[in-house]
Design a protein that fits this description.
Elements lengths: L14 H14 L5 E2 L11 H12 L12 H15 L8 E4 L2 H12 L5 E6 L4 H8 L3 E6 L10 H7 L4 E7 L11 H12 L5 E5 L15 H4 L7 E6 L12 E4 L2 H12 L7 H12 L3 H22 L14 E2 L20 H12 L1 E2 L1 E2 L9 E4 L4 H16 L3
Parallel strand pairs: 1-10, 3-4, 3-5, 5-6, 6-7
Antiparallel strand pairs: 2-8, 7-8, 9-12, 11-12
C-alpha cells in the first residue's frame, strides 16, 4: 500500500511481542513450546489491589477523569516518590498514562524536533529507539557490553553527547540485562550530565522494586539533586505490582514538561482507564508485603537459570541485580551448525533454530541493540525454566 505514512518506514514492530506471538501460534498448532520471551510477572495481581478495582466499578467510578490522572492517584505518586526516593513532587508535576510506554512516548513527542539526538545505552528496551524515531528524533546508541557489566561508563556517555543531544534515556535495573547501577556508578554518569546543561534525563525505573541480594536501587534525581529540574522520573505499577494488563504508568518532572505531555495525551488517548487508576491508588498506598515474597521466588529462579546456562559450553551468563531477565552471551557458539542443519551466524539465527528445533522461545540480542546474546525472562515456573534450560543445553551440545 503506497498511501501509508512515511513515518512507518522509520520504525519496526516490537520484536519481544513478535516472539511471544510466534510462540503462542506454535502452541496453538500443537507444538510443545516454552515461552521465555514475555516481560511480565507470572504472579496474579494481589487481592487487595483487585478488590480496589472491583470497588471502583461497584461505586460507579467509571466516568472520564482528568486527562492525566485523578488527584488521588497523583497524591499517591507524590507520596511514593517521597517515601521510596526522597524526591519532593507536587501533583501538578505528575502525569499518569496508559502504561509506562505512553509516558515515554508523550515526553518524546512533546520535546523532540527533527535532528534532535537521544542517547540510549545498548542493550536497551526494544521500544526506545523506535519511539525516538516516531517523534522525529535520532537515536544515538552507545554500546555497554558484557565487559562493563552491561553498564554505560561515564567516558562513553561523555563521548556520545553533542550540541544536538536532547535526552539521555536511563534504565536501571535494566530490561533486557537486569543490570543495576550502584549509587557511585550513577554518580559518575550524573557528573557528566552536570557538564552538559542542555541534556535532559529520562529515567525508566519500572523495575525499581525488583532488586535482589544487597543491590540498592537509586534514581538520577536522587543521586544528583542539581539534575532535578531537568529529569523526568518515570515508573509504573506493571512489574512490581503484577499489573501489566491494567496499563498504568506515571512520571514526575518539571511542570512545563508535564503540561506539554498532558497536551499530547489530551489529543491522543485522554485519561487512562478509571478503574485501573483506582487500583493503582491501592497498589501504591496499600500493603507491599507481597513484593518481598515475589522477589524471593524471582531470586531463586534467577540463580537456577544462571547456574544452568553457565554450565553450557559457549554461553556466558552474568548474574543480574534486578528485573527478571538474564542476557547471556553466545559468542562461543557463532559459526556452528545445529543438529537440524541451521547455521548459527548470529543471535537471531540462534533464537530461530532454538524455537524450531526445541520449542524454547527466547528473544535474540540484536532486538536490544547488542549481540551476540539472547534474553531469557525467568518470570515463569521453576519447572518450565528447568525444562527450557535443559533443552537449551541439549541444543547447544548438538552444535557442530
Amino acid at each position: 500500500m503506497s498511501d501509508l505514512s512515511a513515518t512507518l518506514s522509520r520504525v519496526k514492530p516490537s520484536p519481544t511481542i513478535a516472539v511471544t506471538t510466534k510462540a503462542q501460534e506454535l502452541k496453538a498448532a500443537g507444538r510443545d513450546v516454552i515461552g521465555l520471551g514475555a516481560g511480565e510477572p507470572d504472579f496474579d495481581t494481589p487481592d487487595h489491589i483487585k478488590a480496589a478495582g472491583i470497588r471502583a466499578i461497584q461505586e460507579g467510578k467509571t466516568k472520564y477523569t482528568a486527562v492525566d490522572g485523578i488527584s488521588e492517584l497523583k497524591a499517591a505518586i507524590c507520596a511514593k516518590f517521597k517515601r521510596d526516593n526522597g524526591l519532593d513532587y507536587v501533583p501538578a508535576q505528575v502525569s499518569v498514562a496508559s502504561g509506562g510506554k505512553q509516558i515515554l512516548y508523550n515526553a518524546l513527542m512533546a520535546t523532540l524536533n527533527p535532528g534532535d539526538e537521544v542517547v540510549i545505552p545498548a542493550p536497551y528496551w526494544v521500544s526506545y529507539p523506535d519511539m525516538v524515531l516516531l517523534a522525529g528524533g535520532e537515536p544515538v546508541v552507545v554500546p555497554a557490553g558484557i565487559e562493563t557489566g552491561f553498564k554505560l561508563t561515564p567516558e562513553a556517555l561523555e563521548a556520545a553527547i553533542t550540541p544536538k543531544t536532547r535526552w539521555f534515556i536511563f534504565n536501571s535495573p535494566s530490561n533486557p540485562t537486569g543490570a543495576g547501577y550502584t549509587w557511585d556508578e550513577l554518580k559518575g554518569l550524573t557528573d557528566v550530565l552536570l557538564r552538559h546543561p542542555h541534556v535532559w534525563v529520562m529515567t525508566d525505573d519500572m523495575y525499581e522494586h525488583l532488586a535482589y541480594d544487597d543491590f540498592q536501587f537509586c534514581t538520577p534525581a536522587q543521586v544528583e539533586p542539581a539534575l532535578f529540574g531537568r529529569t523526568l522520573t518515570c515508573n509504573g505499577v506493571s512489574k512490581a505490582y503484577c499489573m501489566t494488563g491494567w496499563r498504568i504508568g506515571y512520571a514526575a518532572g518539571p511542570e512545563r514538561l508535564i503540561g506539554a505531555m498532558r497536551k499530547i495525551q489530551s489529543q491522543s488517548t485522554s485519561n487512562p482507564c478509571t478503574i485501573s487508576q483506582w487500583a493503582a491508588v491501592e497498589a501504591l498506598n496499600g500493603s507491599h508485603d507481597f513484593i518481598a515474597e515475589n522477589n524471593a521466588v524471582f531470586t531463586r529462579r534467577r540463580d537456577l537459570v544462571v547456574s544452568m546456562l553457565n554450565a553450557i559450553d559457549g554461553i556466558e551468563c552474568p548474574v543480574p541485580n534486578g528485573a527478571f531477565y538474564v542476557y547471556p552471551s553466545i559468542a562461543g557458539l557463532i559459526g556452528k551448525t545445529s543438529a537440524g542443519g541451521a547455521l548459527i551466524e548470529d543471535d537471531e539465527a540462534f533464537a530461530t533454530a532454538l524455537l524450531e528445533e526445541t520449542g524454547v522461545a527466547v528473544v535474540f540480542g540484536a532486538a536490544f541493540g547488542l549481540s551476540p546474546n539472547f534474553r531469557v525472562s525467568y518470570a515463569t515456573s521453576d519447572t518450565a525454566l528447568q525444562e527450557a534450560c535443559g533443552r537449551i543445553r541439549a541444543f547447544c551440545e548438538g552444535l557442530r
